[in-house]
Amino acid sequence: MPRKDARQELACALKRLIKRYPLDKITVTMLAAGAGVNRQAFYYHFESVYDLVAWIYTVEADEVLGDERTYNTWQQGMCALLEHILHDRDFVVRTIHSVDPNYAQRFLHSRTDQLVMSVVAEESKDLDISADDQAFISQFYAAGFVATVINWVTNGMTERPEELVAQLDRVVHGDIPAAVERFSRRL
Q: What is the domain extent for residue 10?
């Protein structure tokens, strides 16, 4: 079996350590020792422990979302993302509660915005709509999705991911194409 790269080893070390320590008590020295690398290896890849957290979220979100970033598949992507959050519940809850809540929201918003932006870009393909307007539509819907996910995590993730995605879909179904159309006609 091939050896994981240093970033993956550091991510695994962080996930082990966060079960025993709050995030703000985990040091680079602890992470390096847990990953079997030196401190310089950590700093070669990351600026801080929070940078490592962001990297973990980014890599895992991209892996989970895969190609499920179209108007017809965003629901599967969002459901897979929520399933992943549920599966990695300890890490998610401990990192969200350990960092500045605005940091977690900004990060989640950036990942969700990428998912929604793919849908907006797809729906805008044959229309005359500016990149700024596309970004505005994407940011608007991403903000709603993020607020819903943060609320779901904060309230204990009791609702099944499929139920939450179905609710999101009922709220926004048809709205993104309609918003793109309205912006293209400047309404």
A: 1-46
